[in-house]
Structure formats: structure tokens, C-alpha cells
């Protein structure tokens, strides 16, 4: 487990060095003559987050229950990684070697920029939010270009763009949940993922929404008390399972 590893150099792969900083950040550095490149996968559990610096200097933050597969060093004409869950990128600029992010149903192409990708299965949509720079999203049928402040949404074979508040989208990176007119199911799913609680729904979906900012440092008991104030649901803990029943 990385969290249990001591700070300092963790491994050396040829001319590639892997270090863990005091902050917990995992940093890859690669020399000029790298003979063998390995593909690594980093997975965060429920309730966990992790920060990673790739060999090209790109900064990566992983939200809870997310993963990234990446080479220990980048070679060739492009830099490519594969992700699931929710991941925020600050890509190191290299016009000669475009950066690409693959997820289940889309490909993101970028030269150097800051963006967030949310591919959580429960949402049945992939949402890519651009904070700065420019990126292209491609699926099997379409290609769209995003501008800062825009979010590209891939749902099945369709793609669309809408304007969003980027600060709200990346609140998880800053240690908060930030909801604006979010449906109760989305709120509960998000909280369950962070607090490692299985959600079991009873009854039909509710039309109630929630707006507010919740620190991720809150205890689950405090969050549970907040959920109990919602007018349209009853909540009850049974072991590690949260029962959500529509009133």
C-alpha cells in the first residue's frame, strides 16, 4: 500500500526513479536514455485520494474509487494514459508530443491544459470540464472542441457541451463536496463513495434537490444527520449499508 510506504525513493527502473514526497505525492522522473518502459496502474479506494506526477511533469489528482494506467516514461510521438472514476489533470506542455486521455467511451487530445474527467459508472455519462487551454473530445461518431468553462458530456453515442462553474466541478480536489441543484440520488451516491458506504434505495426517485458545500473532513455521523434533514427521504444505517427510502 502506497499510504504505508516510507517517504523517499521507492524504486528505480533502469533510468526511471520513483519517489514518494512528504506530501504523499508520487513522483516519476526519467533520464534521457530509457531502455525499458513499464505500464503502471494506480488505484484509489473508496474514501481515498492521491496525487501523482508523471515522468513528463504532468500533475494528476485521483478522486475516490478511481484509477489511472500510465507508462513509467513517455516515448514516441504522443503521451497516453487510461483512466476511470474521476481524475484532474494539469498537463505539462509539449507541442511535439500531444497528451491523450482514454476512458471507456471517449478520447481526449490536448497539448497543455488543466481539465477534469468524471467517468463514474453510476452517472452513465462521461463529463470532461476544461479549466484552461483547449482540448478535443472524440468518440466513435463525433469530435468536439472545448473552451475554458465548458463541459463536454458523452452519453452513449451522443456528445454535447454546456457551460459550468469549474470551481464547483473540482471542489473534490480542494477537499469539498459542492452541489448546485443536485438531485438527492447524486448527492447520496457521491457521499457513499467517499465514506465507503454501500447505498440501497427503496421506493421511487425523488424530485428534491440540494445546494450546498460540505467539507470532506466531516465525520460520516455529521453527514448522516444532514441527510436526515432532507424532506423526501428517510435514511438508516445497517452495518456499512445506508438504506435510503422515499417518503
TrEMBL record:
Q: Where are the transmembrane segments?
A: none
> Which Gene3D superfamilies did the record assign?
2.60.120.1440, 3.55.50.30
Highest taxon in the source lineage: Bacteria
Q: Residue limits of the FecR protein domain?
A: 41-135
Tell me one GO molecular function of this protein: sigma factor antagonist activity
Look up and give the organism this protein is from.
Answer: Sphingobacterium paramultivorum
- The protein in question is named FecR domain-containing protein
Record Pfam families: FecR (PF04773), FecR_C (PF16344)
Domain named Protein FecR C-terminal is located at 176-244
- Which InterPro entries would you find in this protein's record? FecR (IPR006860), FecR_C (IPR032508), Ferrdict_sens_TM (IPR012373)
